[in-house]
Fold this sequence. Notes:
Radius of gyration: 21 Å
Largest sheet: none
Distance between the termini: 56 Å
Number of strands: 0
Amino acid sequence: MAASSSASPSALRRAGNEEFRRGQYGPAAELYTRALALLEAGGEASAEERSVLLANRAACHLKDGALRLCVADCSGALDLVPFGIKPLLRRAAAYEALERYQLAYVDYKTVLQVDCSVQAAQDGVNRMTKALLEKDGVNWRQKLPPIPTVPVSAQTRWSVPSARSPEANTPPATAPPDQTVAATERARTLKEEGNELVKKGNHKKAVEKYSESLKLNQECTTYTNRALCYLTLKQYKEAVQDCTEALKLDPKNVKALYRRAQASKELKDYKSSIADIKSLLKTEPKNTAALRLLQELNRA
């Protein structure tokens, strides 16, 4: 659905929603950007209108794997209208994909303060609790940033429509259909099924699960997990490709750098392997596995 250059902000927003429904997330984001620019130029935009557009654009970024852009837009939306459920959920999903589990936990918990019945937030809190326990041990809660207290007025705003704005949270005419969270949840489930298969040593089946997950949500950890399977299956070119995709999403990802270095070594591309290990060591100079691999490469 094309929008003319003279289209109004609402027409651009509707066109963006239509592109989103068709899976055209880049064009949808561009339309939301144009709508925002027009609103800001007119100087009459309500905070809520701008917040919805930013949250919509964040949904596009999340679907495209542009996780940091998603975080930025969600934060902008929340600055305008605090405690919006959709921007909180989308930012939490982006933080989780970036492996910033503490921040994801805080956003999921904040959603539950606004509406304790949101299943996606309940599931997110459970996943983050498990991830943080594994990462930081039994004292993981002591390392959390503060969780904001949601005022009763915000809880009321999101749960009870106001006379001024009958659908204050997510008006159907202004927000893209929120398949984003559902797709992200399904992608996570598939990834976790893949992880279980890896634990059982069934790397071939795990690749299938990770591949299904990536069709729904391009997440850095899913790429690095599939890369690990490809390494085990001696499919080194595929492992390199997956790590490269992961690094597009997170340029300093240690697992992606290490696994690409391993795959490049097996392909006898020692120069690329050494370059990746050196990049990794800039982030983690005492990484023993990387130091050991570098020694091996220098002897090769």
